[in-house]
Design brief:
single chain, 352 residues, alpha/beta, Rossmann fold, 2 domains, six-stranded parallel sheet, two-stranded antiparallel sheet, 10 strands
Length: 352
């Protein structure tokens, strides 16, 4: 474990809530000079390997005025989280081996977006409409009749209207079985190719700086493109089977395997991002499932949750703060560590 570094003048906290073009040439130059000045070694030489796992640190969730800004309790949650996150990356450039970032990635015609469904008047649901399985069964809502044409190139069964309708009913039923999830229509967000899809500029800048100083690349994990399931967790979709019982979505544990086992795995996985109540919590839930399945509960002790670099969804209609906090309490009971970005990493439990 190396001593914390000063934060370079490159970082301007007031820019955290701005969207701007990162000057890659300048950031690369500053990062290399910083490595020389502070004797920062390439990541390949790390004996203690630490991965920083960033979950959906994107404009769509983190910038005021964008589609699903996570304001938290005080209305500035994601902004303040990312200011602390950038500070953490710069101070611990010599300790962080690799940064892995997920990108929530969507298109127009997905089961959680307005254009997927119509009512009897052929009107799409408004954002934040809750659609129950019962409403899909009784015809209050049906799939958009244009979907077989729109989705035909993705899989052959998507050309069948009845298949898509039955799968939508099944999807809503499976969500409701959990007792805590329902099918909510979200505004178009994290749209592939759009500005909202992009990583927050200051965090991207810090990540490029880190890569330049440590001679390692920023890894991206795309999630959320499948039309018939949401993908809160970065590891798995919400529903992976068809109404027939057949598996719809193949198992893909490559990211988990990379973090835990590839070339010996990382000694520590530090988790931050948005939102604490949704994609972060569900990603940690997936990690807990993988750990349970492995039969090695000690793996949970590799995971550190930056509690001051994530915020819950809070809307006028519902506040998910208590749900998010309850999830974190459960993860801590499993052995994951809840830490603050402002605490020196050398003081974190079990990290040596």
């Amino acid at each position: 474990m190396q001593n914390e570094l000063p934060v370079p003048k490159l970082f301007k906290e007031k820019k955290v809530e701005k969207v701007y073009r990162v000057d890659y040439a300048k950031v690369r130059k500053v990062g290399k000079a910083w490595a020389k000045k502070h004797n920062i070694k390439p990541a390949s030489q790390d004996e203690l390997k630490i991965a920083l796992l960033l979950i959906d640190v994107q404009n769509t969730f983190c910038i005021p005025g964008y589609e699903l800004f996570v304001g938290g309790k005080n209305g500035r949650g994601a902004i303040e989280d990312n200011a602390r996150l950038c500070d953490f990356i710069y101070r611990n450039t010599s300790n962080i081996t690799k940064i892995v970032s997920s990108l929530d990635t969507h298109t127009m015609f997905q089961v959680f977006h307005p254009d997927f469904f119509v009512n009897k008047k052929k009107k799409n649901p408004d954002p934040y409409t809750v659609i129950s399985a019962a409403e899909l069964e009784n015809g209050t809502w049906t799939i958009n009749p244009e979907l077989p044409y729109i989705l035909r190139a993705q899989q052959s069964m998507y050309q069948d209207f009845n298949y898509l309708q039955k799968q939508s009913v099944y999807y809503a039923q499976e969500l409701e079985k959990t007792g805590k999830k329902i099918l909510i229509i979200w505004p178009l967000h994290a749209m592939l190719g759009g500005i909202g899809h992009a990583m927050v500029s200051t965090v991207h800048e810090a990540s490029i700086f880190h890569g330049s100083a440590r001679q390692t690349d920023l890894n991206f994990e795309m999630k959320g493109l499948r039309p018939l399931s949401e993908n809160y967790s970065i590891f798995e979709p919400e529903v992976v089977t068809e109404f027939t019982g057949e598996r719809l979505i193949p198992l893909d544990d490559s990211l988990w395997h990379y973090l835990m086992y590839s070339e010996g795995g990382y000694n520590a996985i530090v988790v931050a991002g948005q939102a604490k109540s949704h994609c972060v919590a569900e990603s940690l839930e997936s990690m807990a499932k993988y750990i349970t399945a492995s039969g090695v509960p000690e793996l949970a002790q590799k995971i550190y949750l930056l509690e001051d670099c994530t915020s819950p969804v809070v809307t006028p209609a519902i506040d998910f703060t208590d749900m998010a906090n309850a999830a974190y309490t459960k993860f801590a009971e499993l052995g994951m560590h809840i830490v603050k970005s402002t605490d020196p990493m050398e003081s974190w439990p079990g990290l040596k």
